[in-house]
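User: Structure tokens for both sequences below?

Assistant:
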Amino acid sequence: MNILGIDTSGPVAACAVQIDGRIVHSIQLLHGKTHSEAIMPAIDSALEASGLTPNSLDLIGVTVGPGSFTGVRIGVCAAKGLAHANDIPCVAIDSLEALAMNLYGFAGIVAPILDARRNQVYCAQFDMSTGFPVRIAEDQAIDIETFLAQLPFDRKIAFCGDGLDTFRASIVQLIGERAIFAPSNLRDIHAEAVCALAENKLDMQTTGKTLFPLYLRKPQAERERNARVQRETLQ
């Protein structure tokens, strides 16, 4: 089975190609270019290096959120376009679940956190000790203190994700020695994990037409518009 994995939900733009259970090419980009500039050339390069064309793909896995509103849309639109043009089924992958795959086999709780801005994180809890992520708590967009208070007090907690840039000190202060932080090579979502999860979720296939982003909050522009309308109504 030929699988293309795509992730643009966070700061990294990434894609990977898996052929018959093996990752044969992977691209991870974190530079000055926007995801809209970077992801399609990366996909083209990955397919060419793997000896594939879009119409030889059997499945596309793509992270659909939570994450950056713009980033999620870019990745989803790329997958939708390829799927629709070449009649390829898709699998929607939760970004936090893909991030949890970085701690495959860890015996404690994995707590992926993505910076959601406004002093909040996109967060969830998974048990990775038996292999693929077993969800313990649903995705949320909440402040870091509230999330940390939800975590069990008797287990080690492994954290990964770009939320560490902003909230590492708070985690150390509130969790202490129970906190384990992923190293730099396991910090961000890897498109290889998207491929593996997509293959593991074949019963969740959808089409490009029915592939949609997962948003936990309304986009900032919509929130600002609603707030403006509310203020005008009260005047």
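Moving on to the next sequence.
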Amino acid sequence: MRRIGIWIAVGGLLLGTAACGGGDGGGSAPKAQSLSVGFVAEPANLDFTSTEGAAIPQALLVNVYEGLVKLDQEGRIVPLLAEKWEISDDRKTYTFTLRDNVTFSSGAPFTADDVVFSLDRVKSDWKLKIKSQLDVVDKVEKKDDTTAVVTLKQPSNGFLYSMTTRLGAMFSRTGVSDLANKPVGTGPYVLGSWRRGDSVQLDANPSYWGTKPPLSSITLKYFKDATAMNNALLTGGIDVISSVQAPESLQQFADPNRFEVIEGTTNGEVVLSMNNARPPFDDKKVRQAVRHAIDHKALLDTAWAGRGGLIGSMVPPTDPWYEDRTGDYPYDPAKAKQLLGGRTYNVKMRIPNLPYAVSSAQVVKSQLAQVGITAEIEPLEFPARWLDQVFTKGDYDLSIINHVEPRDMGIFADESYYFGYNNPEFGELLASADRGTEQEQSDDLKQAAKLLSEDAAADWLFLFPNLIVAKKGVTGLPKNAISESFDFTALAKQ
């Protein structure tokens, strides 16, 4: 074996307390404290194996469902249900040593049989396009109850990282009969209640294998309106705004005796999607014109009060192969008109009814109009209608969505994905990056991001900021949001 992956859990905020030490299981009962956190996008159901979108793993991953590994706040891969792992010299065999005495919330023990079941199920039962990330897995085998062995078809730089996402979630062999309504996991929380259209309550798992969470319950409260969410915090209806939806309103929370404002980064790229599969955006020159027509700094200042960052690609600065590509298409309306060759277009911009998308769409519409592209904005209820009409059916010309899944540039390699982008060279670069050395991976992914930008496969409006506001005394909030989960395991009240 050439490497042993093992970290000591000492201070990674996203790692929190859930992975500290070997499960103490029987520590003293947590103080009866609850917390209410405001969110925007409510899950359509609770099954992230068959339903796209970020809302379900945001609520359940790490909190209810755990994987063998997870990301810490610095983006490092650290142990969770696996206390360590070994990688063979040829980089094709991963041997995971599992923690002892872990049980699912149903009482069923967690063993290597569940690892085999969960990873095999990604291929057989998952409905999401991202399941292709685990196509590199050749077989998963149980060596004994606490040892699982994963053999890959070829070396893969992305495999272990993919295991930190929802793809690596561990399921009970007897707990998947009603995933949409009854999640069964090994995590520090269990589903307490779900009031559709209003809230999800997570209760502390009394049989949790690790350090008990400080809170007895957490309520995820959903708001369709940014003002209503702000008012709920101001009046004591909630304790935390998970992601500020009206950055210009932050002045309301300027009193340091009452509130704390946390500002960090995410890996969420706010993408102006262009339907490469149909006119007019099947024409590269039209897509390039769109990129030149948008003043990204003005858009960020207007739509999101200057919060966030400009990136110019599908790679956030938290990834090792990030390059600033904002100079690829500088704001140049004259160049945009030249690329359009005097032609004008009427297009349909179908966006989710989420604040960042609505605000950004108004700016995009205004700027495109200056070069001869008239965009009709149609907000769609999110997630259901947007996922159905835009994501699944591809019935759109332009859209705007925050792609929050980590290291997700590979979605452009799938022609059937809603972008409709097709460039075999791009897919070849991703495949080469995955099987190469670390340096080759970085070089290939930089080249892939450059190609994607040159092709104007989409436009990247800005990098979504992590803006959290909380009542004074709430601790354990993540400065950066770089995984699919909003990790509640370290949250506490003073």
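User: Anything stand out in the second?

Assistant: The two ends are 45 Å apart (CA to CA).
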